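Worked Example 4.2. Consider the chain below.
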Amino acid sequence: MKDKKNTASVSLKDEKFDLDDFTLRYKSSLTFLNSCAFSANEIIKVDKNTITLDLSREANLYGVSLSGLNVDHFCDLINRALLEAETGFAYGRWAENRGIYANDLFNSNADAISEKRSIHLGLDVFCDDGTKIYSPLDGRIHIKTNNKQELDYGPLLILEHDDDEGGVFFTLYGHLDSKSLINIHEGDEIIAGQLIAEVGAPPENGNWPPHLHFQIILDLLGLNSDFPGVAFPSEMEKWLSLSPCPSIFFESAPKEIDASLETREKLGVTVK
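Applying the procedure from the previous section yields the following structure tokens:
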């Protein structure tokens, strides 16, 4: 009997992609997000010693390969890194090609394709469970749900935000604590800086070390809570365009949270 596959293993392989057409379609949101006037409230109040972890396919933590690592061991390694850096926080990079998505939930839904989803589309903030999460912008609760499959998002929020020209975009918050969402409802109006959730703990959070997965989404493509947080390497450019680098929401984060150049070089991808 085959394991259940992740409904987020949707493919854009047959979708034509033209960067100029894409930029025109989402021009208002992209202009808003990249404008000098853009300002976002702090999502998680990190400290000055916050580190950036390398969780890429070839990397290891203290000599331990991350591929197929059980959650307890993974937690221990991250906590060791935090302790040594005298911090409570660590970033996990956007556009990183990872080997930690080892189970069948990241397989293609096409039986003839062996490729697994491995390109991280969001930014992680590793921290203690119970860490408070605040909305960076005014918006609305578009989706509140719980993706309960192993290594999925767990409790999840997706907020909808307006740009300056009548368009909308979304921000996604994964691996949350369900109890912190009791008073949050779909359709609720949210103001910038409002407490919206807390970071969850395993196994409820998808059975990951405690962290927030934060992701920008320009178009949900009708996928809603199944919009992927991890993409197929062969479709990397399409998905990274739909979920651009979240660094604009994390002003104090170092430039190395963007792993796209490193990933492209390792995969031999050339951007036209």
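The chain has a mean pLDDT of 90. The first helix runs from residue 19 to 25. Compare this with Example 4.1 before moving on.
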